Amino acid sequence: MHVFVTGASGWIGSHTVDDLLAAGHTVTGLARSDASAAALEAKGVTVLRGDLDDLDTIRRGSAEAEAVLHLANKHDWANAAATNASERAAVETIGQALVGTDRPFVLASGVAGLAQGRPSEEADPNPFVGPDSMRGGSENRAFDFVDQGVRTIAARFSPTTHGTGDHGFIALIAAAARAKGVSGYVGEGTNRWAAVHVSDAARLVRLGLEQAPAGTRLHAVAETGVPTGAIAEAIGEGLGLPVTSIDPADAVDHFGFIGQFFGMEMSATSDETRALLGWEPTGPGLLEDIAAGAYFDVRVA
């Protein structure tokens, strides 16, 4: 297939592009910067220059491809409204370009906030609806296009898609430990985060693009839930720092914006995903990656 990928040079996107190319697919990637464009071209990817606000380019890339993979997001936590608006506009543009084609459209989503008191499951509907909700309600908006002849698939990622080179949530938590001189967890540290290695996540996305039927929710989850206290202990051991509990009221001050999430329960299962696609994670676990030093040379801007 010829696949158009937004976020093609990002953390998950770059690994997914590699997996797609290795499987014999051709890729066109959206690139915002010269550096991103050069990195994609070096892999043999056709580049379209633009960003998430360049809807004409996104429309063109979607219309000319046989499948679309939407992984880009501004992740501007200081301006969530603008981030949500751009996400929704991009999803609407892609969906409209694919109406009546029966082509696959895989978009990134997440497992956070799907269930209360238990790990979230693929059958759990996404509660975020409408342009003012988290991610602009993009998962539900994308599924609106199923009845219009689009093979929409949601790839719900774990809160940590980990590996060497990751600059995401775990890197931020490790950076806070360096800055504060202690490795912290929120409250009792018993809340859990689902986790998946980036190589497994990339393979899942490709399999979903190839096989999943319209309306499918996939969970990129290898470990149902790693206790956040155990995450803090692994970071503390790796950095040679003491480990301590942080009062929930002080979490944002200690960790930065990630403190809003580090105390949340974000566990999830992937039983239905594994059965549907024959997907079995093979990469290292989160605590293994931390112990191996994946986050100790990372510098977060």
From TrEMBL:
CDD domains to which the protein is assigned, alphabetical: SDR_a7
Pfam family, one: Epimerase
NAD-dependent epimerase/dehydratase domain residues: 3-99
Region described as Disordered: 116-135
SUPFAM superfamilies xref list: NAD(P)-binding Rossmann-fold domains
Name the UniProt record assigns to this protein: SDR family oxidoreductase
